[in-house]
Amino acid sequence: MSELSFAELGLDPAVLEAVSAIGYETPTPIQAQCIPALLAGKHLLGVAQTGTGKTAAFALPLLSRIDASISEPQILVLAPTRELAIQVAEAFTSYAAKYRNFHVLPIYGGQDFYPQIKGLRRGAQVIVGTPGRMLDHLRKGTLKLGNLKALVLDEADEMLRMGFIDDVEAILAKTPENCQRALFSATMPPQIKKVAQTYLSDAVEVKIESETRTVERISQFVLPVYAERKLDALTRILEVEPIEAAIIFVRTKAETTLLAEKLSARGHAVAPLNGDLNQRQREQTVEDLKRSKKDIIVATDVAARGLDVPRITHVINYDVPYDTEAYIHRVGRTGRAGRTGKAILLVTPRERSWLRTLERATNSPMVAYELPSPVELKKMREEQFESQLLGFSEDKKLAKSMALLDEIAERNEMDIAMVAGALACWMEAMQPGSLPLEQPEALPVVSASAPARRDRKGGGRSGEFRKGPPKGGYKGRGGSGARGKPSGKGGKPAGKRPPRQSDAKR
């Protein structure tokens, strides 16, 4: 069933258009099973680990069933943390990009009530938030659920662990009887089972088994990096790593072409591999990689399925995969035919919580990847230059070249050493795309296995290097303001404003 396309699942045309524009190709297993059930209006109980594509599994079908012309809450999503609430809100905004006058409002503790109340008064079709703050608005009467069509509990077991379960049940009790409900949880402890039995009678059950595997012969590394510095980090990795051939994984078809163009401009022999290429083009790209005509392939998960090229020494996850199976599939593209391989994952601060899930899936911890210091990089470049230079010392054309340099020196009354120096400068200038020797400033050292701690003033997690969304939430097409963008700039550290109300649970 996972081989179905999104078009075959019966999604609303506007939602399908947004999905296509994002570049999603085929649904993940949980999406393929959940979307038809939720489109049919059934309650759903999903048991799946983080990183299986749950957000799209409930967002796409629920958006397909609402009336976008009504500016009142129709979908309510409860998330255990501010971080997850913002992430889900951004996803909804992307999926609803083709709707006009569509609003998604995230509400969570640690943020002033006023912009949230203002956003609720203005009207929003989707509300995403933490249980404590959501219950506050219900008690104040600022959040009304009269037109609510669907409610989603995301990561229910995490809500139980954090002490939110009473608030969750209080919210569920206030929802209309005919409201569609979906609950997602990685585990199913007794209290969560009780909630499901009480509020999700006759629910369709979807269980996605997440297999734990050991990835042998593959060394796994993680490099924390801010989103806007990922290309710089990738460029330096490609410069310092002894790569014979590499495959770089991104999430969307559009990104394969864009990133391939940027790397090509830096002098790399690179080609994109995505679902828009026909079978002959794909085969030719893979053949070019095998025959060393290309050294780097930028691919999506679907396009690289079954790719078997023994000379691939490195897999670089430029974008974090949506699920653990995809990660295992990706890193398995190296270490083929009994050879060793290296996998490097670029992770932004807000994606740190995925690391532990991926480590559990592979039964292998990730080692922090360290970029060379400016001093080490300078020495490395000098050694590479010397090696390249000495490689021509036995060339058959050496005598002819030396005679040419002697003529240039004599004609211009220059010392031969000066001519050699000028030639070295010219060769260095011809080196493609080398980064400056300064260490990139936005590459913080973050432990791969460090637990993400809950922020006492708003239910967020430590390691969050950005502000929340703009005041008034996110807006779909037809609204003012940036759609689906965080108010912080590109994930850079945002100045903290003391909240007016601090509540450990909200």
From TrEMBL:
Q: Which UniProt keywords apply?
A: ATP-binding, Cytoplasm, Helicase, Hydrolase, Nucleotide-binding, Stress response
Q: Which residues form the DEAD-box RNA helicase Q domain?
A: 4-32
Biological source species: Marinobacter salexigens
Q: Which family does it belong to?
A: Belongs to the DEAD box helicase family.
Q: Which segments constitute the Helicase ATP-binding domain?
A: 35-206
**Highest rank taxon of the organism:** Bacteria
Question: Where is this chain compositionally biased, Gly residues type?
Answer: 470-493
Query: What Enzyme Commission number does this protein have?
Result: 3.6.4.13
For the keyword ATP-binding, the answer is yes
* Chain intervals for the UniProt region annotation (Disordered): 445-506
MF term (GO), any: helicase activity
Can you name this protein? RNA helicase
Under which main EC class is this enzyme filed? hydrolase
Q: Kindly state the positions of the motif Q motif in this protein.
A: 4-32
All copies of the Helicase C-terminal domain together span: 230-381
The reply to whether Hydrolase figures as a keyword in the UniProt entry is yes
UniProt-listed SMART domains = DEXDc, HELICc
Which InterPro entries does the UniProt entry name for this protein?
DEAD/DEAH_box_helicase_dom, DEAD/DEAH_RhlB, DEAD_box_RNA_helicases, DeaD_dimer, Helicase_ATP-bd, Helicase_C-like, RNA-helicase_DEAD-box_CS, RNA_helicase_DEAD_Q_motif
